[in-house]
Amino acid sequence: MEIIIQPTAEAATRIAARVMARLLREKPNAVLGLATGSTPLQLYRELAQMNLDWRRVATFNLDEYVGLSPQHPESYHNFMRENLFQHVNILQKNVHIPDGMAADIPALCERYEKEIRAAGGIDLQLLGIGTDGHIGFNEPSSSLASRTRIKTLTPQTRRDNARHFGGEAQAPHHVITMGIGTIMEARHCLLLAFGGKKARAVAGAVEGPVTAMNPASVLQLHPRVTLCLDNAAAARLKMKQYYRWVFENKPEWQKF
Question: Model's pTM, two decimal places?
Answer without folding.
Answer: 0.95
